[in-house]
C-alpha cells in the first residue's frame, strides 16, 4: 500500500487549503482512509475518516464545520478541504489506511495509531 499526500502550505488564519492523498496497492473504497495530524512533540490526532462501507466521512470535533473530506474513486484519491484555518491547525497531516479501522468515535491518539499504512505527510502552517 502506498499513500502519497500533497497540497500542504503556509496560509493566513481564515484561509483555505486542500490536501490530496492518492492511494495505490489497495482496493480503493474497500479500505477506510483517514487523515491524521501531528505537531512536533505532540501526540497523533485523528482529523477525519471515510468509511469503506458507506463512503461517509466523519470528523473530529476540532474540525467539524470547517473541514470536508471526500473521495474520487476514478482517481483513487481522497481530499481534505480545510476552510477557515486556525493557527491550531498547524501540523503535519498524514493520510492513513487500514482495513480494520472503524471510522467513528472520538478519533484520538489510540484510534490514529491503529492505521498500518501511512503517507509521508504534508506540512500545513497557519499564521495568526
Structural description of this entry:
With 128 residues, the chain is mainly beta. The chain is built from 1 helix and 11 strands; from the N terminus they run βββββββββαββ. The protein has one helix at 109-112; strands at residues 2-6, 9-12, 17-24, 33-38, 45-50, 57-59, 67-72, 77-82, 91-97, 117-118, 122-127. The strands form 2 sheets. Strands 2, 4, 5, 6, 9, 10 and 11 form a 7-stranded mixed sheet that branches. The chain has a 4-stranded antiparallel sheet with strand order 1-3-8-7, with no helix packed on it. The radius of gyration is 13 Å and the shape is globular. The protein starts with a strand and ends with a strand.
Which keywords apply here?
128 residues, mainly beta, seven-stranded mixed sheet, four-stranded antiparallel sheet, 11 strands
Identify low-pLDDT runs: none
Radius of gyration: 13 Å
Oligomerization category of the chains in this entry:
single chain
Fraction of residues in β-strands: over 45%
Number of DSSP strand runs: 11
Tell the overall outline.
globular
Tell me roughly what share of residues is in helical segments. Answer: under 10%
How far apart are the termini?
37 Å
SS element count, helices = 1
Order of helices and strands: EEEEEEEEEHEE
Mean pLDDT: 94
Largest sheet: 7 strands, mixed
**Category by helix and strand content:** mainly beta
Give the SSE layout.
Blueprint (H helix, E strand, L loop, with lengths): L1 E5 L2 E4 L4 E8 L8 E6 L6 E6 L6 E3 L7 E6 L4 E6 L8 E7 L11 H4 L4 E2 L3 E6 L1
Parallel strand pairs: 2-11
Antiparallel strand pairs: 1-3, 3-8, 4-5, 4-9, 5-6, 7-8, 9-10, 9-11
Amino acid at each position: 500500500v502506498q499513500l502519497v499526500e500533497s497540497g500542504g502550505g503556509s496560509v493566513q488564519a481564515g484561509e483555505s487549503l486542500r490536501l490530496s492523498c492518492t492511494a495505490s496497492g489497495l482496493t480503493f473504497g474497500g479500505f477506510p482512509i483517514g487523515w491524521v495530524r501531528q505537531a512536533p512533540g505532540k501526540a497523533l490526532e485523528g482529523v477525519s475518516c471515510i468509511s469503506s462501507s458507506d463512503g461517509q466521512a466523519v470528523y473530529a470535533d476540532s474540525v467539524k464545520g470547517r473541514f470536508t473530506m471526500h473521495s474520487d474513486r476514478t482517481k483513487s484519491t481522497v481530499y481534505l478541504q480545510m476552510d477557515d484555518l486556525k493557527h491550531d491547525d498547524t501540523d503535519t497531516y498524514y493520510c492513513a489506511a487500514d482495513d480494520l479501522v472503524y471510522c467513528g468515535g472520538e478519533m484520538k491518539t489510540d484510534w490514529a495509531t491503529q492505521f498500518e499504512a501511512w503517507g509521508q505527510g504534508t506540512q500545513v502552517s497557519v499564521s495568526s
